[in-house]
Amino acid sequence: MRKLVAQRTAGLPRVLEIGPGGAPFPGANEFVDWAVGPGLEGKRVHVLDVNQDPLPFDDKSIDFVYCRHTLEDIYDPVWLCREMSRVGKAGYIETPSPIAECTRGVDASKPPWRGYIHHRYIIWPENGELLILPKAPVIEHLEFTDESVTVNLLNQGPLHWNTYFFWEGDLKFRLLQHDRDFKLQSNYGELLIRAIQQSGASNLAIAGQLKSAGLAT
Predict the structure, then answer these.
(1) To the nearest whole percent, how much of the chain has pLDDT over 70?
(2) If we measure between CA atoms, which residue out of 120, 194, 165 comes closest to residue 8?
(3) For residue 199, how far is the Cα from the chain centroid?
(4) pLDDT of residue 182
(5) pLDDT of 58-94, one tens digit each?
(6) Which domains does the chain have, with CATH numbers?
(7) pLDDT exceeds 80 at position 43
(8) Which of 46, 54, 130, 186 has the fewest CB atoms within 10 Å, measured from its CB?
C-alpha cells in the first residue's frame, strides 16, 4: 500500500505523517508524533498529543495526510479525525481490519485474545465513511462468527489484515456509540459481523486499485 500512496503523493509539496513511530513514510516531509523517535532525527517533527492538541497547521494547508496504525491506539480518534480533515486536502488512513481484530491469537497472546489486546477501536470503511467502533471487552465472550472464516481470509495474504481508506476534501467518519448505534447486550456481535463483511468487500476494491496501478497485492 505504501507504493500506491507514494504514487498519489508524488510531487505534492506538503505531505504530513501522523504517528510515524520508528518507520516514517518516505514520501512525507513533515511529521507529528509524541516524541522524536528513531528515524525522525533531522526531520521536521511537531511534538504534541494528538488526542487533544490542535495540529499546528492552517486550514487545508496540507496537501496529503498519512496516518497509519494510529487511530486504533489513541483514546480520542474523533478529535484527530476532525483535525486531519481541517488541515488536509486529502489523505490516507490505515488500521488493523475488523477481520484481524475479531480473530483470536493474531497478537501471539496467551491466552489467545481477539485481535490486538492494546487496541481501543475497530475501524472500517462503509459507504465512503470511516466507522469507528469501541472494542468492548465483551468481544472476548461472544460467539458471533465461525472462527475459520476470518482465519481463512487472513491466510490468503496481507491484504485482509488492514483497513485502507483514502479520502479527499473532507474526511467523513462516525463514532458508533453504545445505546445509540448498538447495544452490547444484544446486537454488538451482529455489528462485528457487518464490520467483517464490509472490510472484506472494501479490501477487494483496494485489490482492484492496486492491480490498476500495476502494483502487487
Answers:
(1) 99
(2) 165
(3) 12
(4) 96
(5) 999 999 999 999 999 999 999 999 999 999 999 999 9
(6) 2-212 (3.40.50)
(7) yes
(8) 186
Q: With the C-alpha atoms ordered 151, 153, 159, 163, is the resulting torsion angle positive or negative? A: negative
Is-contact 60 89, C-beta < 8 A?
A: yes
Taking alpha carbons only, the member of 165, 101, 88, 90 closest to residue 133 is: 101
| The three grid cell numbers given for residue 214, joined into one nine-digit string | 500495476
Neighbour count for residue 113 (Cβ, 10 Å): 16
Banded model confidence at residue 216, pLDDT cuts 50, 70, 90: low
pLDDT over 90 (residue 22): no
